[in-house]
Amino acid sequence: xxxxxxxxxxxxxxxxxxxxxxxxxxxxxxxxxxxxxxxxxxxxxxxxxxxxxxxxxxxxxxxxxxxxxxxxxxxxxxxxxxxxxxxxxxxxxxxxxxxxxxxxxxxxxxxxxxxxxxxxxxxxxxxxxxxxxxxxxxxxxxxxxxxxxxxxxxxxxxxxxxxxxxxxxxxxxxxxxxxxxxxxxxxxxxxxxxxxxxxxxxxxxxxxxxxxxxxxxxxxxxxxxxxxxxxxxxxxxxxxxxxxxxxxxxxxxxxxxxxxxxxxxxxx
Length: 268
Hints:
Layout: H1 23-34, E1 42-43, E2 48-49, E3 54-56, H2 63-73, E4 82-84, H3 87-92, H4 98-104, H5 109-114, H6 117-124, H7 134-140, H8 148-154, H9 160-167, H10 176-184, H11 191-199, H12 205-211, H13 217-224, H14 231-238, H15 243-251, H16 257-265
């Protein structure tokens, strides 16, 4: 009997040929070769390009030949950063095992939130969110469509990273003010988390007012780089006792010229 080499591949007996005419792939290939970025989702006869740089080719029947053509078109392309062949559809499928669903949810949080299984899991177990990995939760909370029971659940938890993601969600809900107050009165031992909040353009002003007085100069430096920092907080940082903080304010392109004079006058 003839010996064959084992191929370590997640797909057994892969198809060589496409399941469609190669002409259906041509528009996508032309776009990929042009290396163009997109500001909205573009759907081609075969494949979809998402503004964040993902190329979704799940269940397109490419076969080995189609994959080779796409790879050749991507050779000098810098606008596509991720090629999706399976993950996105798996996360949107209510029949996917929950452990796989939750693990992949960090990469496709919008698809996970759209999965109807989440509401069913909540009805069965009001604490099911505790079973979701922290990195996945951190990816879910900033999304506009996150349900209110997520915020309610978080009110009784002490997760710094998740709280950080939740308070930067601009969506108004019953629990947002409670979470903001929890953030303001929390003893933040993790300087890194405070710095993330300080530089995030979606962080509420009430929290930025607290962080502008942070004892750690690195946190204040990060806040000085925030593009949405209100003028009165910029003025405070422009007069900061630390030169590095004043320099960060001066380098921020959103800082008015009048504050540049204040920042630089303290250097000499």
